[in-house]
Amino acid sequence: MTGCFNKLVLLMLLTPAVVLAEALTPLQPLIDNADEGSTLLLEPGNYAGPVLIDKPLTLDGQGKVTVDAGGRGSVIVVETDGAVIRNLHLTNSGESHNDIDSGVQVRGRFNVISDNVIDNCLFGIDLQQSENNIVRRNRISSKPFELGTRGDAIRLWYSFDNKVTDNIISDSRDTVVWYSANNTIARNTAYDSRYSLHFMYSRYNLVEENRYYNNTVGVFLMYSDGVVLKNNYIAHASGSTGVGIGFKETSDVTVEGNKILYCASGLYIDISPFQPDTINTFSNNLIAYNGIGIRFLNDWKGNEFRENRFIDNLTQVVVSSGKTASRNLWEGNHWSDYEGFDEDRDGVGDTPYELYVYADRLWQDVPYAQFFKGSPVLEVMDFLERLAPFTEPRILVRDEQPSKQRTLALVEEQTQVKDSLDILRESLGR
Questions:
Q1: How do residues 39-50 score in pLDDT, each as one tens digit?
Q2: How many domains does the chain fold into?
Q3: What is the maximum alpha-carbon separation in the chain?
């Protein structure tokens, strides 16, 4: 009797798994039987992956189809040119970083991956040696692992001329671009991840109108020349290493019209530009409410800052090891701590903006002293040394024609307060 009871319990435990397996319709035979160039409109329901698409066709789930890889490999692998994958829910990939288990792997040209929901997949969308593809309007999240062991939401490796637009990314690791050029990354949103966007050895890419917030890093460029960053919104890159936009040995970059807010460091710049006779240009950016507006690793030259707005950063500019940032060009920037006048009302300060290193250098060079930055003790020390310096102060920045267009700055500040409230609501799901 006991043996029969144990068999009954075992049968009851196994029955749900059997039913679930039977509920998944095999998708691969439907793809195999579809003609090249045809549109496969799937009936609503749950389908079994992984699947391979090796011929041009359109696979359309009409927003009512789930493809489940069962924890094995990538949900869909595209090894063709001219395929369209759209309106699907892709889930439950494998967990292999070596195999880059993904929602979609693309190995081809002129494919379109659009309007899909990809969740519980280690990597989201992976492009390898793929050109002229479109990745747009997908919602992507990784597996619920520790941040560093998740996969990347979107990954480009040795891939060129692709368009990555209008995707929403959360709870992933990075969006990463390796050895890839001439790609457009525009109007994407990424939050609650690590690197919103990370370039490695990738040249001539366009990054435009993206929203990156509540990530460890906004955009980081490593050995990636000729990149253009325009009109991006980067906020709340916090923590001790939080950076809005970072540079490592990167040259010929254009940074224009971006809003960089509430980060530990708005900009981080090492020996960039690295290539001889090149410059990095920064113009019309709003760099506001950060712990540090710009952190330079050393006194490198070749960066030009024109018509930017530095507003209420706890410290506007920091240079490590007591060096200076004066070898770079500073022209027509607005500084919220500028104390000069504009008597002729031409919008330009009558005297240069000058930023010196006084007693507050202590917190720059002694990590433990950073805790006291902004404290009454350091503020008093700084005031006394400015009043009667007991050492010769070192100039960090000199802007000969600082902007006095305070009205514009106030408008920007008001706008950003509204934007920050929107960010808070988004993070709370309201």
A1: 999 999 999 999
A2: 2
A3: 102
